[in-house]
Amino acid sequence: MEPMSDSTTTDQSTTDQSTTDQSTTDPSQARKRLLFLFSDTGGAHRSVASAIAEAVEAEYPGRFSCQLVDYLREYCPWPFSKAPEIFSKLAAHPASWAVPFNLANSALVSRMLVSLCYLYVQRGLKRLMADNPSDLVVSTHPLVNRASVRAMGRRRVPFVTMCTDIITAHAMWFHEDTDLIIVPTQEAARLGVKYGARADHIRVIGLPVSGKFSRHLDDPTRWREQHGWDPSLPAALLIGGGDGFGPVEEMARAINDARLPLQLVVVCGRNERLKAGVEAIDWRIPAHIYGFTTELPAMMSAADALLTKAGAVTISEGLVSGLPLIVYSKLPGQEEGNIPYVEQAGAGVWAPKPDQVVATLRKWLDDPSALQAAAEASLALAKPDAARDIARELAALVGVTD
Q1: Pairwise CA distance, residues 334 & 2, whole Å
Q2: Same domain for 314 and 389?
Q3: By CB neighbour count within 10 A (0-12 exposed, 13-18 middle, 19+ buried), where does 17 fall?
Q4: Residue 135 belongs to what domain range?
Q5: CA within 20 to 30 Å of 325's CA: 25, 102, 315, 379, which one?
Q6: pLDDT one-digit tens code per residue, 334-359
């Protein structure tokens, strides 16, 4: 239950992260098969699965094959197969998202909903497991957990849930029979126990992001020069996720009208209408406009501040990149807790109005020490090793220890 799309770097094809090879004659050396279940009802679910798969290969080269499957689109009947499209419409109107989120956000209601839907989806879920034999299943989406464990039956492989909500985790993430539940924070862990998960099955590790965000540019100035950015001006990076949700154009216009002494980098994702609108602005400050891009890790490394909606993965990527954050919008429900998480650590501010965004940028430009303090707080809050720590947890569950 993440907002659409947290990261613009995510590959949108369902793919095997490494070539499956079970042909070796020595069973002890056969690759362990990891099955990641996600849905594109928000880019966080796919990007988190990809980050873990990437870390598994980095930690254990050639020891695992990782298969990523959009289980709703590929294995569930209508309307579940149209969940990404339905979610996009809901996420475009945040007030409408609060209703289904809150209605289902209790242990009792979540169990009832799954029980009601299970007979309808069980055939697809059993086919999913038959089509993708595995040694371990990892879910990065809340809707699949209880139903998948049930569909797997008693003689099942270990099932792991990776919760992608930082603070206000939804009840559907938590199932008492899950072998391991990984959460980003202690607050999410406490909710897990409240919603019926076993405390000894919950591990607080962090939210995994691609290792690319930890590999900061050796020479940001040179990168700026190579990509047409002004190396002498501060750079504010304004993004709306892979699908360009939120008041991105409104914020861009306000910053331009204020004529702040900076350059603005706007990433519009796949939202062509947004990109056209931003490009049509009568720019009075240097501006660099992008659609969907795979350069976001480098952009974050080269920027001085990040302006973003409250998506969990984008916030985590910004923290790992050491960027001060201005959070300008949020979805009710799972993103509510992300605001105090950032503000209380001193890593950024909540600024839902354009004039508040402008005032924060002006303050940081006038007081570089405040900008630096927020950057240091971001790095202190970051969990850059979360993906690799999770990879080691998964490896241990299938008997791989070195």
Answers
A1: 7
A2: no
A3: buried
A4: 27-208+385-397
A5: 102
A6: 899 999 999 999 999 999 999 999 99
